[in-house]
Amino acid sequence: MFRNLLPRLFGEDPPASGLSADDAEMAVAALLVRIARADHRYHDEERARIDALLAQRTRLSPGAAADRRAAAEMLEAEAPDTVRFTRAVKERIPLDQRNAVISAMWEIALADGHRSADEDSAVRLAAKLLGVNDVDSALARQDVERSLAAGQD
After folding, report:
1. Which of 2, 5, 26, 109 is the most exposed, having the fewest neighbouring CB atoms within 10 Å of its CB?
2. Which CATH class is domain 2-152?
3. pTM (whole model) above 0.85
4. Co-chaperone DjlA N-terminal domain: which residues (predicted)?
5. What residue segments make up the domains of the chain, in order of their start?
């Protein structure tokens, strides 16, 4: 799966048949990894949250979600830029569902309890490339912050 996905995502020409829904979900997973790595500190809390989000998004078992994250880590390391991932997501995921992707990114950015400028910038760039406006991204972040604060009580 991983080796076949690289040319589809990073090739000069997109495949004639477009990307599959699985390809788009792998691109989402790689975006989540990219957000977690943006501050150069990739913590266990972030890995666990990525696994949980992947399991929730696509109804994967915990083991399958961890496997997808591991593949996404390799894919993200090979990616020249964020644009390729967001293009795959935009192609297969409707705008109203992309807001959920932005919320997931904020969950990852805030998972370690530390909000960094690098992660903020990475989420903002991804949101822009996904066609999600700044207001909707900020509202998603605020919802995640409230949810995390409520979970600490």
Report:
1. 2
2. mainly alpha
3. yes
4. 26-142
5. 2-152
